[in-house]
């Protein structure tokens, strides 16, 4: 169930979200912050020489999906367990192997312990399991029904969100109360976590009270939640192929970031055209997206290339040309452009554009330069294959 929520929470490459934000303060400061924000602390206890630790640092912690979930639900900390920086932490906690991943409450007690590296999907499941240990839903429900306070509602709704259950009825019922105090911290936090879709009254409340919420939770938290809500509405518009709903997503993002809303508009036009049946509409939308939405953004360009490559229109020469334009632009911008050139060469080979594929494969090899020998052999093998085919 939690993955349903994650799909709503996580932004695509078009919206911010660059992995886990690790807290830079001391261990006592992390504990104090966990108590103030009523969150668990996630600790990556690692060693500098540890290969699996390096893998997680390079590939898992930067994952936008992981970042969205961990930044929303935990105070995140990293400690090298063999250096002085972890001395206060090591007075209470230990690691017999690396990495050791800990979920610790504000009382400095371990809620959940993991040993060994995790890929993103497993780490997300483990994080959900840690939260489930502290979210006693039956107890929270009883408190909500007995008290009906903003604090009780906030904690009850938060448990629903963490588990992937629908929270909107409970949140809306509370936020419609005639005598509601919109200055109360719990009310502001309830608005923040409940604003999961831009086409909603709660999203409007988020924007209306964003200054107060930002003062309480930080401007970054408000902006990221607003963008996540926009993305959820965007995806819903695609699912139902709803132009009006797409306009709503764009208009709501414009209230937060006007420039980004223009990019989203061109992305939405392209995404809807991709799901349509009119090739000319797709070609026009793709050209617009290349110019106004994906220009200068490696990840957007890669995604655009992939979408065109897998589209039902890819047998048309003009669509192939647009895919090549997107793939080439990504390669020129990327620090590892040889990979993009290699994928593009393989794509052109499948489309029987062999001479063009050969030129791109040679660019891949030239861009790799004195890179790893195994990569050079793979690219050279493709070049030899294409040279033989074009004789």
UniProtKB/TrEMBL annotation:
Q: Give the matching SUPFAM superfamilies.
A: Thioredoxin-like (SSF52833)
Q: What is the lineage of its organism?
A: Bacteria, Pseudomonadati, Bacteroidota, Saprospiria, Saprospirales
Q: Does the keyword Isomerase apply?
A: yes
Write one Gene Ontology MF term: isomerase activity
Residues in Thioredoxin domain copies: 9-133
User: Domain of life, per the record?
Assistant: Bacteria
InterPro entries attached here? Thioredoxin-like_sf, Thioredoxin_domain
Alphabetized, the UniProt keywords read: Isomerase
Q: Which GO terms describe its biological process?
A: cell redox homeostasis
> What Gene3D superfamilies does the entry give?
Glutaredoxin (3.40.30.10)
- Determine if Isomerase is one of this entry's keywords: yes
Tell me what this protein is called.
Thiol-disulfide isomerase/thioredoxin
